[in-house]
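Marked as duplicate of an earlier ticket. Keeping the data here for the record.
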Amino acid sequence: MAASDAPYIFLALMAPFLAAAAAPVLTRALGHWAALPLALVPAGIFAFFCRALPDVQGGQALTGGYVWVPSFNVSYSWLIDGLSLTFVLLISGIGALILLYAGGYLKGHPQQGRFFAFILMFMGSMLGVVVSDSFLMLFVYWELTSITSFLLIGFDHAREASRRAAIQALVVTGGGGLALLAGLILIWNVTGISTISLLTEYAPALKASPYYFAALLLILGGAFTKSAQFPFHFWLPNAMEAPTPVSAYLHSATMVKAGVFLLMRLQPALGDTPAWETILPVFGGATLIAGTIIGIGQTDLKQMLAYTTVASLGLLVMMTGFGTPHALESAALYLVAHAFFKGALFMVAGAIDHEAGTRDVTRLSGLRRVMPVTFAAAIVAALSMGGLPPFLGFLAKEEVYEALAGGNPRAIAFTLAAIVGNGLMFALAFAVALKPFAGAERDLPGPHHEAEAGTEIGAPPSALPGISPSRGENGKRHAPHIHEAPALMLAGPVVLALAGLLAGVFSQAFHATFASPMASAIAHEARAISISAIPHLSLPFLLSLATIALGVIVYLFLDRAREAATAALESIGWGPDQGFDQAMRGLVRGAYLITRRIQTGRLETYIMVTFIVIGASLLLPMAVFSEWPALPGWPVGVAFHELVIFAIAVIGLFAVVGAADRLTAIVSLGIQGFAVALIFMLYGAPDLAFTQFMVETLSVVILALVMTRLDLKPSDHRHGRELVKDAIIALACGVGFTALLLRAVQGPFNTALTDFFSQWSKVVAHGTNVVNVIIVDFRGTDTLGEIAVVTITGLAILALIRIRAGGDVKPADNDPERSA
């Protein structure tokens, strides 16, 4: 790929959003077969970016883009290297399979077009995240993934559980996104760099900065929330309320991998420090153990897989930050292996649910005869997840143990964590892939696609109005027509399961094409992965055998292990998921109390608070920074008529304060306005004086008109303490404005604006009256805004008068209100 391909790269990034706009129309025309033309979009993106493979294998990083906001050095720019290209191919390739799968899974659903639109927007958002070079572009796409995942998780919005899960995911990941934005801005301020491709050059300065740790914590906040690291892990299993195609896509190639991607992308700039190599392994290891233990206690296939995803993400974070040779290589291998086997297993779980009518592993058995292809795909994917040769999962696990194994306490602790976590994931993999298919056949609810269109996928049998299972002589229920999943639903699990096998068998070609360029991009230096699928006696292989042995034991005693895990969790009691609900209730309650306290509904209160803030803003800075103005002396040579004008202003002030009713106060207020206009006239501003005369006259007339039409209290109702309080607030504002103006005029006069307007008023605006030119031309928009304010005020006054006039109309004799 060359620089001339920039328009095509931009079109490829925009293609999912364009397809999302067309998806509802295509679905109305073609039904569930619309999945075929829509799947061509990510397939085309996959084929287009495959052209970059030779360049990336050669160690090149392709950059490009367009200037977005040049004044702030912000661009829409991309970075395509081994890391981003691998993600792009996973997102687009698996995305095409997911669209096909969704076509069969949601066949007949009245909102299938909307679903296609949402998942294509989600795909486009994730593509933008992984290719972003600009900080701002990364953040925009990052938040788009949160918004589109909210739409997908809450797709079945009629169910409370779906709405709760969607809000929970949005709150957690959206909050993390704000932390990410703050971290990126902090890095931008420290380095002056706003693009990722240039950030590595400034890594030494960034790590030496006193702001490094703060920036690291903020970045980790964004990454940990998005990738469900402990203690933010709770939102991901709850996201299983989404339809299974969303779960498969979310867990294999998209959103939850975004946090891991971010850590891998920023590893050269933020990594290789004590903080990095402590925080990431500790939280990653804790997430690995917590995810597998909670997963063992589940019986729902999707929940079991969801918690293994949490555990796998923890393993990826742990390896990204471990800081030993082969650690980054193991993370690269495991990320791709996980995408293959987890995407396949989620689609298998969806196929089982779609055909058998339940996801409860304790109710499922004997499906191997009626679903042989699904069974084969499940076993192949489970073998990779379990880390058995010659699958890619085996290579990844061997590389993990190669990176972790060591004689120091730190290495031993994390090696034990990896063995326990991988062993439990082995047991869960075969619990999902083997238990539903092995054993004797059972009576099951039957296929969901026999239900009426629009019935929720995954609902209990009683909620499926289209199913009428037959009953035998003894009243026993029989499964109605359980059979193999449709072809559209089989393509995904079969292709992904085989991909994990072929990547392991042809490991050297896979390493050269994907794994080594990806690891090199993460480390920002050449890394070559050479591990093969042929087992050989070594410490990592012995650790793998120990892992398999643990997994087999847990699988054989899965029921007891489930009881033990459930009991342990119940003994702990309170958890982050419950804490989220408590936090949200507290937030709503706190907002209610604050609003009730501040938003009283009384205009008088709002005005008082406004003037308190104004007075404090004027006086406190001058008091804190000792910026009080010097008191002016009595002016020499003041003319008698000037003193008279100031005396009139003071008399008007006392007239307003001492007025017996509001109408008198309004008329007295005009005295001060006219006095100010006379001052403008005396000091050489007749046009400003004329404007002031007009404004004061109109104000007095309009206010007097309103007061005569509205039935308001004729006199001031305030007494005692209220008068004192309001007087203090008024004096604070008056003294504050006076002091500020005195301080301003006592400084040296800057003639820059005067010179500018004098020079350009006639040249640019063709006017000799500088004041008029400033108001009409240089500040034309501001003047237009002031006119709009006056217009709105006039309309409000007219509305008040009309409302009051309507209220004065007496009811007719037959008016029921009058008789009442």
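See parent ticket for discussion. Residues 313-460+482-556 form one domain.
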